[in-house]
TrEMBL record, chain A:
Protein's UniProt name: Heterodisulfide reductase subunit A
Domain 4Fe-4S ferredoxin-type per the UniProt entry, residue ranges: 235-265, 593-622, 626-655
Organism: Desulfofundulus thermosubterraneus DSM 16057
Pfam families: FAD_oxidored (PF12831), Fer4_2 (PF12797), Fer4_7 (PF12838)
Keyword Iron carried by entry: yes
Family per record: Belongs to the HdrA family.
Top-level taxonomy: Bacteria, Bacillati, Bacillota, Clostridia, Eubacteriales
From TrEMBL, chain B:
One term under GO cellular component: plasma membrane
A Pfam family it matches: Fer4_8
Protein name: CoB--CoM heterodisulfide reductase subunit C
Any one GO molecular-function label of the UniProt entry: oxidoreductase activity
Keywords, sorted A to Z: 4Fe-4S, Iron, Iron-sulfur, Metal-binding, Oxidoreductase
InterPro entries for the chain: 4Fe4S_Fe-S-bd, 4Fe4S_Fe_S_CS, HdrC_iron-sulfur_subunit, Helical_ferredxn
Start and end residues of each 4Fe-4S ferredoxin-type domain: 68-100
Species: Desulfofundulus thermosubterraneus DSM 16057
PROSITE patterns: 4FE4S_FER_1, 4FE4S_FER_2
Record bears the keyword Cell inner membrane: no
């Protein structure tokens, strides 16, 4: 007979505020096998853990149940305490009487107390049946994958590479740099974005430990911490990058024009293009969808021969190319190339996109003079469509009055309920850049709240006010088009308490920050769910902000939520150091809570094989019969196979059928007739 | 409400004066742009309680938006009691009271001031008191005070100095009040 100790935690008021802890403790004493039941204010604190350890050392208990918060954060802590006391650490079970009891039943003390008792009884029933298990370790592949080559991804990659680890940096666009490469200047110091970013891009591009995979996307991810197998699709560029020098001659020659994504659609690029002048790698890409196959030179066909000269008839791009990189005769595979990578850890840094203006009908999105803040950023940038000249899109005139509208698509139940966090500051920044250059331009910023929390941000705001930028509290209700490319802006000034209106030449919408397109799909490949707003969820907001629910996968930057450059970089560097820990250790602990096949019971049906998300199960010949076998190194203990096995041949250690049944019985004790089944 | 009335309620910012804030700064409201409209001054202001439409916070916002005409069409600025509580409570050192004073200076320059203010100014010039009760001497004597208070009333040379100062101000150029002879007038009761 096992000797079970039950330890009930008050969690300050978190549990004790809704659960009668003393009653639960007394009840636990009456359960079969329980020799001692104690309670304490904070069971996870040093004195709390000492209670458990002392009882084990005294020989009083040999199984431990802690009724407290969540195993998600606290199970490892208590297992360690059990081990330090001198027991096998898997002789431990946790009853979650906070997240699953006191919190949801906060106003029902009686019900919460009754439920706590059941949860404790269930844990006690299971702990009696637990077996000792031994930890195991798997060797780690000492390399890392960073998904996304914006400022966060680049810093994460650089840090890991500088520590000596091999890093694969996957970027879906032809160049690294991300959204930051589009910005003119950056708050709160107004550094030129290109001046601080491009040197980093060069470092990333030339680092011996970084393998840059641009114009590439993650296709699939298998395995687990220490040993991920990642398939990456290198999209077809239709340009031989080994030969391309980035000279741009093909771009000059190309006659096909396409809206330029880098300039937010405000001008045209060519069908063959270099993403932007400072691109890394500086290589041309052929956008096959928009290529017009000049001279009937479809990719993979031999050129026609000129009837008179006998020369081959080439397309302008390949004619212009001095290195032969644009040779269109090559039989390019439109699906590109699949690369298989082995990495120990993964960092997701896929960044963001800004909302388009189209959904905001009340702001006359059809007007060329209603633009997004990102478009204004391109207008202000020296590499933008106007080369930094402030000109409005409709007629190229310099605007005299500019209106900024904040929270467009943010804090809005029709679009995104969250605050995009960076808009207040970037509006102030753009307004300031304009006002400093052209003091006579009238600038109005319509806001709901000015949110400038951040080091040196409030000072920045004050400075902008001092420049005479007019701040009006009140969301703009309408922007109407007037004759002469003018726009009428109507709002209600909350501070004056009156409706106001004015005529503007340019209206700038601070549209919301959204997750990068495809983040949800990438999450499915990685096994990480996105929150209701589409951003990836960190493991714990405060304590594990760069970890995800999947061990070995970390997040940085706007993939996790809207944030500015300083925060993105901080988070990236935090993620890289978290991702380096398993690489530095060389091996990772894998809990022995994995599945095992009883070969006597296995019928060899093979149902389990395709179900395993980790490809850990294979069929092997045994005494001339196919039998299922589970690779311990790959098994993550999800239990899908154990649940599906029609022969009951698979056991998930730590969650055996006997243990689960004992828990169910304890939870349903006293409920008759199967009415609740 | 008719649509014409409703339309008149809308303030058209296109007609506003971009340089108005600078003018107020020059006339004494130096810290104007520090205001972030937190409304702490309004919470301390007796004008708000008395129901005036333009009090410190709203006056400042109207100035920030360049709404000179709106403020000139309203007499609220003259209702400020100079209690200075706004200046005491302001967390941004805006000194709202000084801004109201600056706005009064603007109004005076446009002759947009109420008659009562003219009388007050005249009394100030003539007696050294904006509000002076000439017949108060008896009452003062009854409670054992000197008939004349120890101010410009009792010291004509001090009044002369004050008048000299006033003649150096914009008031002299504007000619709102006559600034002729010296000496305390017998009756300047208002």
């Amino acid at each position: 007979m096992s000797r079970i100790g039950v330890y009930v935690c008050h969690c300050g008021e978190n549990i004790a505020g809704a659960v009668d802890v003393e009653e639960v403790r007394k009840y636990a004493e009456t359960l079969p096998g329980v020799v001692v039941a104690r309670d304490y204010l904070f069971m996870c604190s040093d004195p709390g853990q000492e209670l458990i350890k002392q009882d084990i050392r005294d020989g009083l208990v040999d199984r431990v149940v802690v009724a407290a918060c969540t195993p998600r954060t606290h199970e490892p802590i208590f297992r360690k305490a059990v081990e330090n006391g001198g027991l096998n650490k898997y002789f431990f079970e946790m009853a979650n009487i906070r997240d699953q009891d006191s919190w949801p039943h906060w106003h029902d003390r009686e019900g919460a107390t009754a439920k706590a008792k059941k949860l404790v009884a269930s844990a006690v029933a299971k702990v009696a049946l637990l077996e000792p298990l031994e930890d195991r370790y798997v060797d780690v592949t000492r390399s890392s994958l960073v998904i996304g080559g914006g400022v966060a991804g680049m810093f994460a990659a650089l840090d890991l590479a500088n520590m000596g680890y091999k890093v694969y940096l996957v970027e879906k666009n032809p160049s690294i740099g991300g959204n930051m490469a589009k910005l003119d200047k950056t708050f709160p110091t107004n550094d030129c974005s290109a001046c601080i970013l491009t040197p980093i891009m060069v470092q990333v591009g030339t680092h011996p430990n970084i393998e840059l995979l641009t114009y590439s996307e993650v296709e699939s991810v298998e395995g687990s911490i220490g040993n991920f197998k990642v398939k990456v699709r290198k999209k077809q560029t239709y340009v031989d990058w080994d030969r391309c020098t980035g000279c741009g001659d093909c771009v000059e020659a190309c006659p096909a024009r396409v809206p330029n994504e880098f300039n937010e659609g405000m001008d045209k690029r060519k069908a063959i293009y270099i993403e932007f002048p400072q691109a890394v790698p500086k290589r041309a890409v052929l956008d096959i969808e928009h290529c017009i196959n000049c001279a009937k030179r479809a990719i993979g066909t031999e050129p026609r021969i000129h009837s008179k000269t006998g020369e081959p008839i080439l397309a302008p791009c390949e004619k212009a190319c001095k290195t032969g990189a644009c040779d269109r005769s090559k039989p390019y595979n439109p699906d590109g190339e699949i690369m298989e990578l082995s990495v120990g850890t993964i960092i997701v840094a896929t960044g963001y996109k800004v909302m388009d203006k189209t959904p905001f009908k009340e702001y006359s999105p059809q007007s060329p003079n209603v633009i997004t803040a990102m478009q204004l950023e391109r207008i202000l940038s020296a590499t933008g469509p106007t080369e930094g000249e402030l000109r409005r899109p409709s007629d190229g005139e310099k605007p005299r009055t500019i209106v900024f509208i904040s929270c467009v698509g943010s804090r809005d139940k029709n679009h995104h309920t969250y605050c995009s966090k960076v808009c207040c500051m970037y509006m102030l920044k753009e307004a300031r850049l304009i006002k400093e250059k052209y003091p006579n331009i009238n600038i109005y910023i319509f806001f709901i709240d000015v949110r400038t929390a951040g080091k040196d941000f409030e000072e920045y705001y004050n400075y902008c006010r001092g420049l005479g930028i007019k701040m009006i509290r009140g969301r703009v209700g309408a922007v109407d088009e007037l004759a002469g490319d003018r726009l009428r802006v109507r709002a209600y000034d909350v501070d004056l308490g009156v409706p106001v209106e004015l005529e503007a030449d340019l209206v700038v919408l601070a549209t919301a920050i959204e997750p990068a397109p495809g983040l949800e799909e990438l999450g499915r490949k990685l096994g990480i769910t996105c929150g209701s707003e589409g951003f990836m969820k960190e493991l714990h907001t405060k304590l594990y902000p760069v970890e995800t629910p999947v061990k070995g996968i970390y997040i940085a930057g706007c993939a996790q939520g809207p944030k500015d450059i300083p925060e993105s970089v901080s988070q990236a560097r935090a993620a890289s150091s978290a991702a380096a820990v398993p690489l530095a250790m060389g091996r990772v602990l894998v809990e022995p809570l994995i599945s095992e096949v009883d070969q006597e019971k296995c019928s060899g049906c093979g149902i389990c094989v395709p179900l395993c998300p980790y490809l850990a199960i294979s069929m092997v010949e045994y005494r001339e019969k196919p039998l299922s076998r589970i690779n311990e190194a790959l098994c993550a203990g999800c239990g899908v196979c154990a649940a599906a096995c029609p022969s009951g041949a698979i056991t998930l250690h730590g969650y055996t059928s006997a243990q689960i049944h004992a828990q169910i019985e304890a939870l349903t004790a006293g409920i008759g007739g199967g009415a609740n089944v | 409400m008719s649509s014409a009335q409703a339309a008149s309620l809308v303030i058209n910012l296109t007609d506003s004066e971009p340089g108005f804030a600078d003018e107020i700064k020059e006339l004494g409201g130096e810290e104007l742009l520090e205001c972030i409209q937190c409304a702490k001054c309004a919470a301390a202001c007796p004008m708000v309680l008395a129901g005036f439409s333009f009090f410190n916070k709203r006056i400042i916002q109207a100035i920030l938006l360049g709404l000179r005409e709106v403020l000139l069409d309203d007499s609220s600025i003259w209702a400020c009691q100079s209690c200075n509580r706004c200046t005491e409570v302001c967390p941004r050192e805006v000194n709202p009271f000084e801004i109201i004073q600056a706005m009064r200076r603007v109004a005076v320059r446009e002759f947009a001031l109420p008659t009562m203010s003219i009388e007050g100014l005249k009394s100030l010039y003539d007696t050294g008191h904006a509000v002076y009760l000439a017949g108060a001497g008896n009452t003062r004597a009854k409670v054992g005070l000197p008939e004349k208070p120890p101010s410009t009333v009792a010291y004509p040379e001090a009044l002369k100095e004050l008048q000299a100062i006033m003649r150096k101000t914009a008031l002299a150029d504007l000619g709102i009040i006559p600034m002729n002879g010296f000496g305390v007038a017998d009756t300047c009761e208002v």
